[in-house]
Every structure is written in C-alpha cells, then in structure tokens.
Amino acid sequence: MNDSLENLQDYFKQLRLTETSHELPNLLRKAEQTSWTYREFVQEIVLFELKKREEKSIDKRMKWAKFPYVKTLKEFDLTEQTSLSQRQLSQLEELNWMEEQFNLILLGPPGSGKTHLSISLGIEAIQKGFQVMFVTMGELINLLKTREFTRKSQVLLNRIESSDLVIIDDLMYMAMDQREANLFFHLINRLYERSSIILTSNKSPNEWGELLGDEGITTAILDRLLHRVEIIHLNEDSYRMKHRKSMF
Ligand code: ADP
Ligand code: MG
After folding, report:
1. Nearest ligand for residue 238 CA
2. Whose CA is nearest to atom 5 of ligand 1?
3. Rounded to an integer, what distance in angstroms lies between the CA atom of residue 93 and that of residue 114?
4. Per-residue confidence at 207, pLDDT binned at 50, 70, 90?
5. Which domains does the chain show, CATH number per domain?
6. How far is the CA of 81 from the centre of ligand 2 (A)?
7. At what angle do helices 178-191 and 215-225 cross, to 10 degrees?
8. Confidence tier at 195 by pLDDT (50, 70, 90)
9. CB of 81 closer than 6 A to ligand 1?
10. Domain AAA+ ATPase spans what residues (predicted)?
11. Which of 12, 41, 162, 197 ranks highest by number of CB atoms within 10 Å?
12. pLDDT tens for residues 221-233?
C-alpha cells in the first residue's frame, strides 16, 4: 500500500487516465491543504479527468471543422448589424433549430458578417457536443467531383456527411454545370433530415436557379433546403467597409 507517487501515476496511466496522472501531485497537495474528505477527493479526481477529456474532444472537433478563422458570437457586434435583434441572436445561440433539424440561410452582401456568424454558430455547436464541418461551395464541388479517385476527398466528404451541422459558405458564388448541380443535389439529399445546414450567399434563393442551370434540379434542391428553414437577411451596411484600413 505504500507505492511511490511515480508508481501511482503510472497506474493512472495504465488505466488511460493520463491527464489525472500528470495532475496527481497537485491534486494530492490540494487535498491535504484544504482537508478534502475522501469523497471530495475522489470527486475532484474524476471531475478533473472528465473536464480534460471534454476540452480535448472540443479541440479535436474544432480542428475537424476546418473553420477558415475562429470568431465567436461574443465578437459579433449587433450595433454593426441592425438587421438582427439580440433576441434572435440568443435564439440562434440556443441551437434549438439544430435539434429540430432546421437549416439556416444567411443572405447579405459581401462583408455583412455571413461567414463570421456561421463560424460563431459552428463553435457554439461544437461546445454543445455536436460535430461540425465548414466548407466553401467551391471546395465542396471540387470534393464531390474528385470523390471517386481521391482518398482525401472521400475522407472529407464522409466527415461532411456524418456531421450534425454542415456550413456551406458562399453558395452560388459560381455557376454550376449540370453534373455539378447533380452532385450537389445528391449531397443535399443525403444530409436532408439528418443534419442541419447553414448556407451563406449574396444571392437570394430566387436567383439560385440561374446558377444551377437545370430547373428540375433547382426545384429539388430548394425543396429540401427550404423545407425547414430560417432565412436571415443581413444588412447592406458593410462592417468590412466601415472598418477598412485606409492608406490615407
Ligand atoms: P461576409 O461573409 O458576409 O462577406 P464576413 O463574415 O467575412 O463577411 O465579415 C467580414 C469581416 O467583418 C470579418 O472579419 C468579420 O469578423 C467582420 N464583421 C462583419 N460583421 C461583423 C459584426 N456585426 N460584428 C463584428 N465583426 C463583424
Ligand atoms: Mg463570407
């Protein structure tokens, strides 16, 4: 019963409680200093390991999400974006819409905060335990077209298809040919009713038809995307323009 501290730490490692193993000297010191009861001591050890695991899992999912940058909802300034109320933002933050498998469409001109808002909501989702993936429309089409012969595309698309939330940024930025529109439709079909989608676009859905070309496919895609959807129009007021750095 009188093993050295190193041995004890090693036992924790063997049980795959690596984080606790490292922290053990500190935990023991604190237990002595604050005279924890046996029960408190056990609780502190278990909670420490759980907290570390949670942090690691969030880190892992943040990496997986492939956000182009990390900006939170706290950094989203509503005085700069008057088309959204605090109440609406709080509702989005609660993520009930995700649990009900609603999609979000964020519309607005360049610089109006679409990408920022989508990333922030993605971060919220990750913190609540969801798996999220961010992809631009251009990247997505490229992945779909190379799926059959590129291992990397397969891996990323599998990840997209198993995500609870898929963010597709800058939809309809580019015109698609028939094959691309078809591939996109099949992806949306696979995600439909399984995950939530956030789409950002500077064109409104009634203009998407021109870019998708085929009317039948456009209707089928819109059907699924708009079945359960919240559409948010962000203001003209461009944050980027107002805050742009000037040389003069
Ligand atoms: P969009 O995707 O609509 O073109 P972005 O989301 O990329 O625009 O926003 C451009 C830049 O402006 C980003 O750095 C973003 O963080 C910032 N920004 C835009 N709107 C806001 C806002 N309401 N509050 C804080 N930063 C904002
Ligand atoms: Mg953007």
Report:
1. 1
2. 113
3. 15
4. confident
5. 2-57 (no CATH), 73-242 (3.40.50.300)
6. 15
7. 20
8. very high
9. yes
10. 100-233
11. 197
12. 888 888 899 999 9
| pLDDT tier at 12, thresholds 50, 70, 90 | very high
Q: What is the mean pLDDT of residues 136-153?
A: 94
How many angstroms is it from 120 CA to the middle of ligand 2? 13
CA distance 24 to 21: 5
Determine the number of helices (DSSP H) and then strands (DSSP E) in the chain: 12, 5
Residue nearest to atom 11 of ligand 1 (CA): 240
The C-alpha atoms of residue 57 and residue 127 are separated, in whole angstroms, by: 9
Ligand 1 atom with minimal separation from the 78 CA: 23
Cβ(76) to ligand 1 under 6 A?
yes
Q: How far is residue 181's CA from residue 47's CA, in Å, rounded to a whole number?
A: 49
Does the Cβ of 239 fall within 6 Å of ligand 1? yes
C-alpha 79 – ligand 1 centre gap (Å): 13
Strands 196-201 and 165-169: parallel
- Mean pLDDT throughout 3-12? 92
Is ligand 1 within 6 A of the CB of residue 115?
yes
- Averaged pLDDT for residues 114-141: 96
Distance CA 135, CA 65 (A): 9
Locate the ligand 1 atom nearest the alpha carbon of residue 112 and give its number.
Answer: 3
Ligand 1 contact, 71 CB (< 6 A): yes
Q: Give residue 237's pLDDT.
A: 61
Question: Is 216 touching ligand 1 by the criterion CB < 6 Å?
Answer: no
**Residue 131 DSSP one-character state:** -
